[in-house]
Design goal:
339 residues, 2 domains, two-stranded antiparallel ribbon, flat, binds protoporphyrin IX containing FE, transmembrane, heme biosynthesis
């Protein structure tokens, strides 16, 4: 997949400065430049694969919880004291829980491939190597937190931390992808014009984060603990669900406001589209949330809500990204330091 830049007349841009296709004027031509461009595109693909895989494992982790398989392997890092892997006697719960553990290997392999691809780029750009390394470290940390979750017999606080850490790894994978993208395709505008909207963008992001955080408390108070013997957090499900839903309404209001203001401001189309997408994802996720609440939390809807939560967060990151707020926070400093 080759993305072209409106600002460069469609030519892929490498390192934010050089083009893959140049006029035959003695300087490096298409053939010479194509290799680094391909290498960079490979990095971007691996970063995207990491983003998708880290979202997918939230879904499979949810399947472990929603099938009551949380303690299918009752210990960690071995499955049982006597066996490293799940055995036939442990039944379907053992297979489901152990299968999810194995997925960590797939995630790690994708993260290592991304790191190696970034490392092998000319100049070993730190702005790509760093997020690649951080994503790998996050996955390793998730392996350990997953183990602690089992040791703590699925204590809801640890389960919540496990989920929020995935949100952290997803954020890092997004940033890895964004940086690779911006080294291939120059951002469409240097949108300093959107600076006055930063407080709104960050308030929106903080509210989105709070919705996720409180969502984990709702789950911790509810029936889907992952095992009949797992403790609950003791909060009143109705009250905490109300707080969760109230925050969702605030989030929706801020997102609609961001969309309308960006339109009125004459912001770049990508920024307006990002805000519109966030509103749509929130509406879909809010609907799932309401239906699951009023229908006794059927597992399929709860699973969809879990994936929807990740999508809301990714859409939130896209709003920060397309509005230039992430550049202010991390990207521009790294870019101007040349690494
Ligand atoms: C933007 C919209 C929303 C987002 C991003 C969101 C996010 C979340 C998250 C992250 C969780 C915790 C998942 C887990 O730890 O397994 C959760 C759980 C939950 N949410 Fe939402 N939510 C949204 C809207 C709603 C709405 C409108 C309701 C309606 C009351 C709702 C009801 C619930 C319930 C009942 C749970 C607990 C499910 C369980 O027992 O596993 N959500 N939500």
């Amino acid at each position: 997949m080759t993305v072209t830049s409106p600002s460069t007349g469609g030519s892929p841009q490498v390192d934010g400065a050089t083009h893959a296709q140049r006029p035959p004027d003695g300087r490096p031509g298409t053939a010479e430049r194509a290799a680094p461009a391909r290498a960079l595109i490979r990095v971007r693909q691996l970063a995207l694969a990491s983003l998708i895989a880290n979202t997918a494992i939230v879904a499979t982790g949810g399947a472990v919880r929603l099938t009551g398989s949380g303690l299918g392997c009752p210990t960690w890092p071995r499955c049982t004291d006597d066996s490293l892997v799940a055995t036939a006697e442990m039944g379907i719960h053992g297979a489901i829980e152990f299968g999810n553990r194995l997925l960590t290997i797939v995630l790690s392999a994708i993260a290592v491939a991304g790191l190696v691809a970034a490392w092998r780029l000319a100049g070993r750009p730190r702005r790509l190597v760093r997020p690649a390394l951080l994503a790998l470290a996050g996955i390793a940390a998730q392996g350990v937190v997953g183990g602690i979750t089992v040791w703590m017999t699925l204590h809801p606080l640890v389960v919540g931390i496990h989920f929020m850490l995935s949100i952290g790894v997803i954020s890092v994978a997004y940033e890895f992808w964004r940086r690779a993208r911006d080294m291939i395709v120059a951002p469409p505008v240097a949108d300093r014009s959107l600076r006055p909207l930063r407080p709104l963008a960050w308030t929106l992001a903080a509210t989105s984060f709070a919705v996720l955080l409180v969502g984990t408390l709702v789950t911790g108070s509810g029936p889907h603990s992952g095992d009949p013997d797992a403790p609950r957090n003791g909060l009143d499900p109705q009250n905490i669900s109300q707080i969760h839903a109230d925050l969702v309404f605030l989030l929706l209001g801020l997102s609609v406001a961001a969309w309308l203001i960006l339109r009125a401001w004459g912001a770049p189309a990508v920024a307006v589209e990002a805000a519109a997408s966030l509103v749509l994802v929130e509406l879909a996720q809010g609907l799932i949330g309401l239906v699951q609440y009023f229908t006794g939390l059927p597992v399929l809807l709860v699973g969809a809500h879990l994936v929807g939560a990740c999508l809301v967060w990714i859409a939130t990151l896209a709003v920060l990204d397309r509005g230039g707020a992430l550049d202010d926070a991390v990207g521009r400093k790294a870019a101007t330091s040349g690494r």
